[in-house]
């Protein structure tokens, strides 16, 4: 069969000219980290996450900020993760103001329950903030500096992504029992085929050390990162995902080398659990397949959520929670700043944001709090328990159902920490309680209110669908 001369010519050109698709698909990536541990001795450092008045006595392992920076076609994205309980939206805004050459900056926290209070709720008493403003400024500065440092280390890399599940590594503290037990691992390899860095996203409260520990620590995250760094010889960024509900390492059975179960609240269990998460990441990396992370598309949506939590209102009034308040007018997109003394008559709200990053075939949801697995995986109880406070509430649109890419990842406590994000029809604050329980389950006391879940999920849906 005769081949047309024009086809032969085009084929020859294709063989001579370097393939551009590989260049287009490739990103440049950089990693960075910095120690932002508090200084002990001068003033008390209050440990966040459990009860109030837990003063730190020692630093066991450092509080770190870890960063990955991605660049393609002049667009730069930075994702920072800090080993603290939470960072409010104003922190992300100030970091962004220092780094205006970036297309997107995502500032997240691991939700560590063994680090310094960065929100105000865990001071010496109910009416005193536990935040050291100078320390918080140092954390912000550390984030900015680490992003800049990571940006300077960027080099071309190819990416591979994998996932692995381990339901036995999670304990669900609240009925209905729904776990998000998928770990996602993203590996970047340089031209020499050696790993440039790893990003791991897992869905668990870093609280293995429990409530009596007084040593500053990043909890199991420190040991997961340590294990993976030594195993793969590269930087590691750990991201917390879906932790509402409550996804925890407490009560998870972890055994030592002799088969003896390790106790909650011990560094032995915390290290062993961290290593198990690291090995789960190894499993995900072993199954990783090449993934295209370009082009970049980033969307954010700022909105307002009403504050129906009386404890939060009290914390606002006494300056324990330091963030701007707005007057709620039943519209998540419109609210005016509140001025004056807070009272029970004025409905208030706070401003926050959701985000969506589409990096080629990978989509990342950025959620500003501790979202329940039901809302991520579209597993809201149906029908609702007859004793639920809002059994007829509409089922919220699931977060992952809005993401159509080949790969999905969620970053919780992203650019804010607004507390638990519950399905409205699972809200259970009033007797009689769901599932025949004599007392209400844990969760509602650390949520803005029953409208938070519907608003967050609806704002995310509309943002992703936006043309």
Number of helices: 9
Residue share in helices? 10-25%
pLDDT < 50 stretches = 1-25
Cα distance, first to last residue?
A: 49 Å
Cα gyration radius (Å): 23 Å
Which helices and strands, and how do they pair?
Blueprint (H helix, E strand, L loop, with lengths): L4 H12 L3 H6 L1 E9 L22 E2 L4 E9 L2 E8 L6 H10 L5 E6 L23 H20 L2 E11 L5 E2 L9 E8 L5 E8 L12 E2 L3 H13 L3 E5 L6 E2 L18 H20 L2 E3 L4 E11 L3 H8 L8 E2 L8 E2 L10 E12 L2 E5 L3 E2 L1 H5 L29 E5 L8 E2 L30 H14 L2
Parallel strand pairs: 2-10, 4-5, 9-11, 18-20, 19-21
Antiparallel strand pairs: 1-3, 1-6, 3-4, 6-8, 6-13, 7-12, 8-9, 14-17, 15-16, 15-17, 17-18
Question: Care to describe what's here?
Answer:
The N and C termini lie far apart (49 Å). α3 (89-98) crosses α4 and α5 (220-232) packs across α6. The model is unreliable at 1-25 (pLDDT under 50). Helix content is 23%, strand content 25%. The protein is built from 9 helices and 21 strands. It has helices at 5-16, 20-25, 89-98, 133-152, 220-232, 267-286, 310-317, 373-377, 452-465, and strands at residues 27-35, 58-59, 64-72, 75-82, 104-109, 155-165, 171-172, 182-189, 195-202, 215-216, 236-240, 247-248, 289-291, 296-306, 326-327, 336-337, 348-359, 362-366, 370-371, 407-411, 420-421. With 467 residues, it is an alpha+beta fold. β17 and β18 form a beta hairpin. The strands form 5 sheets. Strands 1, 3, 4, 5, 6, 8, 9, 11 and 13 form a 9-stranded mixed sheet that branches. Strands 14, 15, 16, 17, 18 and 20 form a 6-stranded mixed sheet that branches. Strands 2-10 form a two-stranded parallel ribbon.
């Amino acid at each position: 069969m005769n081949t047309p001369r024009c086809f032969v010519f085009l084929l020859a050109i294709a063989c001579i000219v370097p393939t551009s698709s590989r260049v287009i698909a490739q990103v440049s990536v950089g990693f960075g980290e910095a120690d932002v541990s508090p200084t002990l001795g001068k003033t008390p450092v209050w440990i966040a996450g459990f009860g109030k008045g837990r003063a730190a006595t020692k630093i066991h392992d450092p509080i770190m900020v870890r960063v990955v920076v991605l660049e393609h076609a002049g667009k730069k994205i930075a994702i920072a993760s800090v080993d603290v309980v939470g960072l409010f939206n104003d922190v992300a805004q100030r970091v962004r103001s220092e780094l205006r050459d970036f297309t997107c900056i995502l500032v997240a926290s691991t939700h560590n329950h063994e680090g310094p209070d960065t929100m105000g709720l865990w001071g010496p008493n109910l009416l005193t903030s536990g935040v050291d403003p100078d320390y918080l400024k140092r954390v912000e500065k550390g984030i900015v500096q680490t992003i800049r440092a990571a940006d300077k280390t960027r080099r071309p890399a190819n990416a591979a992504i994998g996932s692995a599940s381990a339901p036995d590594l999670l304990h669900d503290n609240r009925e209905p029992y729904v776990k998000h037990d998928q770990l996602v691992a993203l590996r970047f390899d340089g031209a020499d085929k050696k790993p440039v860095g790893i990003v791991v996203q897992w869905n668990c409260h870093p609280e293995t050390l429990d409530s009596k520990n007084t040593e500053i620590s990043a909890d199991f995250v420190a040991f997961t990162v340590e294990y993976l760094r030594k195993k793969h010889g590269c930087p590691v960024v750990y991201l917390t995902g879906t932790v509402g509900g409550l996804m925890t390492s407490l009560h998870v059975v972890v055994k030592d080398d002799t088969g003896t179960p390790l106790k909650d609240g011990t560094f032995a269990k915390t290290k062993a659990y961290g290593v198990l998460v690291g090995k789960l990441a190894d499993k995900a990396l072993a199954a990783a397949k090449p993934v295209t992370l370009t082009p970049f598309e980033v969307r954010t949506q700022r909105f307002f959520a009403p504050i129906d939590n009386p404890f939060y209102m009290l914390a606002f009034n006494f300056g324990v929670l330091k963030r701007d308040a707005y007057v709620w007018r039943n519209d998540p997109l419109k609210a005016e700043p509140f001025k004056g003394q807070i009272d029970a008559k004025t409905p208030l709200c706070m401003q926050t944001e959701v985000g969506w990053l589409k990096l080629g075939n990978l989509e990342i949801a950025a959620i500003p709090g501790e979202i329940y697995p039901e809302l991520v995986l579209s597993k809201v109880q149906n029908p609702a328990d007859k004793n639920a406070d809002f059994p007829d509430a509409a089922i919220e649109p699931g977060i992952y159902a809005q993401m159509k890419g080949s790969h999905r990842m969620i970053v919780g406590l992203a650019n804010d920490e607004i507390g638990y994000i519950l399905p409205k029809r699972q809200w259970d604050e009033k007797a009689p309680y769901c599932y025949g329980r004599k007392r209400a389950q844990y969760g509602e006391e650390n949520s803005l209110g029953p409208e938070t879940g519907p608003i967050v999920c609806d704002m995310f849906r509309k943002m992703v669908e936006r043309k």
